[in-house]
Design goal:
Elements lengths: L2 H4 L17 H17 L3 H12 L4 H11 L5 H34 L19 H14 L4 E2 L5 E2 L1 H4 L25 E2 L5 H9 L4 E10 L11 E11 L4 H16 L5 E8 L2 E10 L16 E10 L1 H6 L8 E8 H8 L7 H4 L2 H4 L4
Parallel strand pairs: 1-4
Antiparallel strand pairs: 2-3, 4-5, 5-9, 6-7, 7-8, 8-9
The protein binds phenylalanine (PHE).
Phenylalanine binds next to strand 8 and strand 9.
């Protein structure tokens, strides 16, 4: 059958009868048509059909080869040349179209990726600034023999006030200043009750720090929070003096704020220490000349401290004639805010990743 007649006929319906031998011109015309059909294929299945019609077992190419075989010796070279042209042109048209259709199909599946765009980085987590400061502070005190003690956030009035020589009419016991539970217990207003718990269960000498949360009915503002952290310190032994307190806190200041730090004690009052002081460190930013961080005073208030009151020793069955001791309490937020130059205490509790990432 002449290829022009079999072109649209499915292979299984196609007669295997061979048509008249193809002439040189027939082959050239078939070549042009086949190339055109391959180039026009709109999708891969259509292209495959066109390939079968041209290069397949019952397609054009076998017809051409048969014509070649049947040709006279004079005709054969021309027909051979034409059939080679057919093969090359059709093969080239088929593979070019196949490549183009496959590339187009890929583009439809996913937009081309721009491999030069920056990736989505995974930010590593880090310790909260308060935890970072706490770890540093603990490290400094551990180095001079302090161990870390702790107590519960919910305390008894006895531990939080009575045993700390704080009389019933002291303003800090007022419901205006303290969160009480229905059963009469309270959220501890400072970490000092850990002094009582520790001395009740340990014989002197004791040398502890006790970090933890404390709670007060404070109205939140840039420097106040109803829930904050303190670090308590207690050293009780024979002949502990104010000089030990000053020496140890000066060592602490030099470790944390820098080797040129100075320490200043101002007279103060706490029920559980006698004498009592407030402790200032020279400003680590300006060195004492006055700046924004120290509000132009040259000093930064860091702690309350003093010599343990004999009444506190009596409450825990220590002999005030045999031992003396010092105690101090400092605010961890305050140290964090000074060291990390944080403007507002509330940032420390809001867990805004943009804030926290600065200290990662
Ligand atoms: N507990 C005191 C406060 O919270 C601080 C302090 C602790 C003072 C130990 C003296 C001794 O203000």
């Amino acid at each position: 059958m002449h290829p022009a007649l079999s072109a649209g006929v499915p292979p299984d319906l196609r007669s295997t009868r061979t048509g008249p031998a193809m002439t040189y011109d027939d082959i050239l015309k078939s070549t042009a048509e086949a190339v055109e059909a391959l180039q026009a294929a709109a999708d891969l299945p259509t292209l495959e059909e066109a390939r079968i019609r041209t290069l397949g077992r019952n397609g054009l190419l076998p017809q051409i080869m048969k014509s070649l075989k049947d040709a006279t010796p004079e005709e054969r070279p021309r027909l051979g040349q034409a059939s080679n042209q057919f093969k090359e042109a059709v093969q080239a048209a088929w593979s070019a179209r196949k490549e183009a259709l496959e590339a187009a199909a890929l583009d439809k599946v996913a937009p081309p990726a721009d491999v030069t765009l920056p990736g989505h980085g995974v930010r590593p987590g880090s310790l909260h600034p308060i935890t970072q400061i706490l770890e540093r502070v603990q490290q400094v005190f551990r180095a001079i023999g302090f161990t870390v003690a702790s107590g519960p956030d919910i305390e008894t009035v006895e531990h939080n006030f009575d045993a700390l020589n704080t009389p019933a009419d002291h303003p800090s016991r007022d419901p205006q200043d303290t969160f009480y539970l229905a059963d009469g217990r309270l959220l501890r207003t400072h970490t000092s009750p850990v002094q009582i718990r520790h001395m009740k269960t340990h014989k002197p000498p004791v040398r502890i720090i006790a970090p933890g949360r404390a709670y007060r009915r404070d109205t939140p503002d840039a420097t106040h929070s109803a829930n904050f952290h303190q670090l308590e310190g207690l050293f009780v032994a024979e002949k502990v003096s104010m000089a030990d307190l000053k020496g140890d806190l000066t060592y602490f200041a030099r470790q944390v704020l820098g080797p040129k730090s100075k320490t200043r004690f101002r007279p103060h009052f706490f029920p559980f220490t006698e004498p009592s002081v407030e402790v200032d460190f020279s400003c680590h930013v300006c060195g004492g000349s006055g700046c924004r961080v120290c509000k132009n005073s040259g000093w930064i208030e860091i702690a309350g401290a003093g010599m343990v009151d004999p009444n506190v020793f009596k409450a825990v069955d220590y002999d005030p004639e045999a031992v003396t001791g010092y105690a101090f309490g400092m605010g961890l937020e305050r140290i964090a805010m000074i060291l990390l130059e944080i403007q507002d205490i509330r940032h420390l509790y809001e867990n805004d990743a943009r804030f926290l990432a600065q200290f990662a």
